[in-house]
Design brief:
By secondary structure, the chain is α/β, with parallel strands linked by helices. It has two domains: about 240 residues, Alkaline Phosphatase, subunit A; about 100 residues, Gyrase A, domain 2. It is built from 15 helices and 20 strands. The chain has a six-stranded mixed beta sheet with strand order 8-7-9-1-10-20, with helices on both faces. α8 links the parallel β7 and β8. α10 packs antiparallel against α11. The mean pLDDT is about 95.
Amino acid sequence: MPMPMVVPDYADRSITNVVRAIRGEGSALADLGDAVSGASTVVLVVLDGLGDRQLVDHAAQSPTLMAARLEPITSVAPSTTAAALTSLTTGVPPGAHGIVGYRMTFGPDILQSLGWRVGKDDATLVLPPAQVQPIEPILSGVPYVGKAHFEHSGFTMAHLRGVDYRGTDSLADVPGVVREAAASSPLVVVYYDGIDKVAHASGLGEQYLAEVASTDAFIAKLRASLESQCALVVTSDHGQVDVGDARIELPSEVLDKVQRMTGEGRFRWLHVAGDARAVAADLAGPLADDCWVLTVDEVIDLGLLGPVAPGVLERLGDIAVIPFTDRYVRDPAEPNEHRMRSRHGSLTSEEMLVPLCVL
């Protein structure tokens, strides 16, 4: 029996509203707005891959964050880094900004959005970031502290153009960089991907717990380095489930009708020949114990992507296969994806609910 689907709360408790709430704009996330009211500077830290469920389950490893935890907020659909970070920095859902997943179609091409690649080639010239993602980020001029080697990537140009990028690959240097930025800016944003990287590589076991504890200690150190009148806000882009190599193979009679797949293993788009509704009906029975199977019209009607802008619809597939058990839908064209132990993208509470903490 399907578990409850967590639909993004774009109107209120979603990462789309975090920056505006910090700035005191609008009525969404009122608790966050109240918590930072009066602060001279707000430092917003985005911890890639830390779900609220994982934070609570591992409270012993995260005393600093747990002591500062507000009610959780939702990620976006799909609950994946490219879509979620772009929603955080633009303030709009994926259907508006157009970064609708890890892999998405552009005519005959498939864009891998994080690496900004088409096949093995850099897609920057073929698919200019500002054309793929036309919404101007709401962080223009804001100091943004991230890894130095991300500064000039296509994805950075898509979701962070206009920021004051301050690159450092040393976590130990981040407090000093942030402190300097906070001296002259009312908002500073920090991005750290350590938890997500460890989860993908080794799952949610001992190495993951060690990384959560290390990250919590980093947050405590960062808070201690800031002036008392600063506020430190921590959130994330998505949570995780430990999947390993537990995969879902589509029935051969359905695979015969699939022209290609996009998305990711926890939110797989099928591009099919023929009647998509009929193919979805053929899948619904065999996958009933593991997946939500939705046509693209159903995805849009449920509001999973928010309002879908002209031109974005063609980036989607015909059918979304979204596991709610700890498995992933294999794409035969992606032979290396089995290497990831932990995954995200689906609409489960483990993946969709992310923390909101104020120190």
